[in-house]
Amino acid sequence: MQEPEEKKIALELLETEQAYVNRLHLLDQVFYTELMKEAKTGKTVPEEVVKMIFSNISSIYQFHAEFFLPELRKRMEDWNHNPRIGDVIQKLAPFLKMYGEYVKNFDKAVELITAWSEKSPPFQELIADIQKRKVCANLTLQHHMLEPVQRIPRYELLLKDYVRKLPPQSPDRGDAEKALEMIFMVAKHSNAAIAEMERLQNLWVVYQRLGLEDDIVDPSNELIKEGPIQKISTRNNSTSEKYLFLFNNMLLYCVPKVIQVGAEFQVHLRMDVEGMKVRELKDTEFPHTFLVSGKQRTLELQAR
């Protein structure tokens, strides 16, 4: 008898889950535990740094090792009497929100590993020592840390495949479809969290370059475009270098600072986008010029 397709996929889910729990064990019980032990001696890195690198990996490991993997294993052993996994995955889905924190922290964690490997040779040596072990399979700590980031999309793919292969009258159809929907929502939640985090980080960098002016720092703003521009002075027919930041609600007309201590630019003028008009000029002497007129004033500018 050939195994039904859906059982093969369910078995693949179990096998990859076992391998995944081994990887989580390596991250939590080996890397995290040993680096933490060394950090406590005060010779490698501060304990806080180790905690920041590994985020909530311990909770993720415990959930998979103590709950999801045993449930899945039990279900596969009983497959002939009860051929279904949809309900088990429904129990798993809400807990996958834990990944939001880990995934958001991932880039920062990798930066910390790099920075502290340069700063602290004992830290670098300990990581290199663990990486040499057979269990690491010649892969770096960063490589192993990527695994939880990729796990939710993997569940989604396997489950999609499983639902596709289920016979129409399968007792698992309803549960499996609901489970897929739940996993899809969690994946979306995790991606949205990352996108929002990146947007705020980029915004904060821009605010720092502008000297953190009170009336400009607002987390709801969106940066649309920025870049250098020439300001045309009609009085003496000359141009001078300026810089523009266009947000969803305002245009900042800035002057690059000569001595860049702290802020990179000084805001000379803030124009509201509401009611602002832009008109192209046909000027033979100054090509690519345009007028920006707002409630505050009008600027004659030249693009590169």
Automatic annotation (TrEMBL):
Statement: the UniProt record of this protein carries the keyword S-adenosyl-L-methionine: no
UniProt-annotated location(s): Cytoplasm, Cytoskeleton
Location, primary (coarse class): cytoplasm
Domain DH: 5-193
Positions in coiled-coil regions: none
GO cellular component, one term: cytoplasm
Molecular function GO labels: guanyl-nucleotide exchange factor activity; zinc ion binding
SUPFAM superfamilies from the UniProt entry: DBL homology domain (DH-domain) (SSF48065), PH domain-like (SSF50729)
Pfam families in the cross-refs: RhoGEF, SOS1_NGEF_PH
Domain PH residue range list: 222-304
GO biological processes: cytoskeleton organization; filopodium assembly
UniProt keyword list: Cytoplasm, Cytoskeleton, Metal-binding, Phosphoprotein, Repeat, Zinc, Zinc-finger
UniProt xrefs under PANTHER family: FACIOGENITAL DYSPLASIA PROTEIN, FYVE, RHOGEF AND PH DOMAIN-CONTAINING PROTEIN 2
Protein name in UniProt: FGD2 protein
Record organism: Brachypodius melanocephalos
